[in-house]
Structures are given as C-alpha cells and as structure tokens.
Amino acid sequence: MENARRKYTQIIDLPHPVSVRRAQMSRLRRAAQFSPFAALTGYEDLIAETGRVTAPAPVLDEAALEELDRKLACLCSLLPARPTVTVTVFCPDGRKAGGVYRTCCGVLSAIDLRTQALLLEGQAPIALKTVTDLRF
After folding, report:
1. Which of 103, 111, 107, 98 is nearest to 134 (CA)?
2. For residue range 65-83, what is the model confidence (pLDDT) as tens digits?
3. Which of 77, 104, 109, 131 is the most exposed place for a label (fewest CB within 10 A)?
C-alpha cells in the first residue's frame, strides 16, 4: 500500500484533467455506456403488446339489429337533406382478439347498397357490418 502512495504522490493533488477539444460528457450519457445491453431483442415490445387493452367484439341481438335497420331506412329517406350523422364502428384488432370502438361524425353523402357502406363527405367508406350505433 505504501508503494502505491509513493508511486502517485506527484499527481495525487493535481486537478482533474479537462479536455479542450471535447465537451465534457454528461453523467447520464456516461452512465449509459455502462448500462446492460438488451439481451432479449423485442421483449419490451412484446410486454407492451400484451398489456395493450382491446374491447371484446360486439354481439348485437335481434332487437339491436332491427333498430339499426330502422335507422338506416330513416337515413335513406333523409338522404336528399344530407343529414349529419354520428357513426360508431367496431374495428377488429389485427394482432389479438377484440378491437376498438371508433366514433366518426360527418355529412352523409350516400348509402352504397352494392358495397354495403356508408359514405360520409371527405372520409373513407364505412362498412355497414362494422356499425354498432347510428345517431342523427
């Protein structure tokens, strides 16, 4: 131990050297150099995906389907007046069971019976089979 002290006696009290060419690295960036690497690539993404919540797919009973049909028939008669409608649709999730409910609002321009879709101005067609609620 005494040999080690004698070895560094000339430099032990000198100030810490600071580079004039490079800016001093922050403690956070310096600590990041010594942090462990991600041994399991994609593991955090998998955990986030598992934790993502989806709603169950709707099961509309006969009464709810009849109510939607009645509202669609009413919209057909109101079509020349170009009513503003609020449509709630169920969008299935591509990765796991269930999906999300989305609500969009707009002016109804047409009901395409050939493709079974609602056409709102400036929006993509909405498939009738995904509609869970209509308000106007």
Report:
1. 103
2. 999 999 999 999 999 999 9
3. 77
